[in-house]
Amino acid sequence: xxxxxxxxxxxxxxxxxxxxxxxxxxxxxxxxxxxxxxxxxxxxxxxxxxxxxxxxxxxxxxxxxxxxxxxxxxxxxxxxxxxxxxxxxxxxxxxxxxxxxxxxxxxxxxxxxxxxxxxxxxxxxxxxxxxxxxxxxxxxxxxxxxxxxxxxxxxxxxxxxxxxxxxxxxxxxxxxxxxxxxxxxxxxxxxxxxxxxxxxxxxxxxxxxxxxxxxxxxxxxxxxxxxxxxxxxxxxxxxxxxxxxxxxxxxxxxxxxxxxxxxxxxxxxxxx
Length: 272
Fold this sequence. Notes:
Elements: H1 3-9, E1 22-23, H2 26-35, E2 43-47, H3 53-59, E3 64-69, H4 75-81, E4 88-92, H5 101-105, E5 110-114, H6 117-129, E6 137-143, H7 144-150, H8 161-167, E7 170-178, E8 183-184, E9 191-198, H9 207-217, H10 225-233, H11 237-246, H12 260-271
Parallel strand pairs: 2-3, 2-5, 3-4, 5-6
Antiparallel strand pairs: 1-8, 6-9, 7-9
Helix pairs in contact: 2-3, 8-9, 9-12, 10-11
């Protein structure tokens, strides 16, 4: 099936507000699904079905696919694109407003998504914070600069709240860079596919409190961690400095210098 003709036939128009950029190279999409480790026993949640090209590649491998799509004008396109598959459930609506996706999946699940820049961080935080059960893996196609942030190390310019939040729960690996020329329409940036694999760790501190701490630490990068924490949590400077000392951290330390393990230790100290 020629996806571009299918889009034209149904009068589809790309909408900037949804950050729509589709990939139609079937071999490339199949390779992404393969590298993401999808098997015949898997339930896969896709965020942003688009024209259904990636959805079809997932459906060929997985037992069940639950695909979210915010743009209802794509409904006739998706019905044609996915007509041969009986293992795909389409949900038209905003994923950010959806209930716990782990409840929808009814068991272990994996996530695959081609995410526009403006929604990448909110979607990842929703998957990490608003699910009773974390996905086994999350494979995301994101702007290359975002992929760099996801894989960054402490005390580098790309290291930030997203990096720490992910590292606390997932191991991260960049699978492949994706040229902007592979998309239709062609975006102004290159992309990359990142695979996040859930770590076998218990929740030693409330995950929302942990994320709030990390966000506060990077709220103003040039301020000290103590200053950011007093502003975010209405804590006295004395309480902040005592917590830092208990964790063996310098009083003038900035958030960008802390490892994930040090953030976890600080969270336990502050929120125990």
